[in-house]
Amino acid sequence: QVQLVESGGRSVQSGGSLRLSCVASGRTFSSYVMGWFRQAPGKEREFVAAISWSGDSTYYADSVKGRFTISRGIVKNTVYLQMNTLKPEDTAVYYCAAGPAHTGVVVTTTRTYDYWGQGTQVTVSS
Questions:
Q1: For the CA atoms of 69, 73, 78, 82, what is the dihedral angle to 10 degrees?
Q2: 89 three-state secondary structure
Q3: N or C: which end of the chain has fewer CB within 10 A?
Q4: How does strand 32-39 pair with strand 92-100?
Q5: pLDDT of residue 53
Q6: Predicted local distance difference test score (pLDDT) of residue 103
């Protein structure tokens, strides 16, 4: 059974930092792209960041570029999201996702991803 388990979400003040972790299990995730999405109340789930299997390629939403960093652990089925200079508008449930990589894959759409975690809440207060 495939599982993605996120952790690290909590409440933090504006300007603070958090690191989210995601551990994937239940299958081999070679050639899979890993991504982070978020969903605020009343809003659609939106792309935050993604990383290739090798870790050589990373992608970011404009809203987080320069503040967030996605990385893979030494164990490739682990992915992290380092979030710095957090803003109240970053408040959301953050989801980890995994999807098969292929030429031309669009990493910013939820349709690319087959597997999802249960989410972890990040709350940024002003």
A1: -20
A2: helix
A3: N
A4: antiparallel
A5: 85
A6: 82
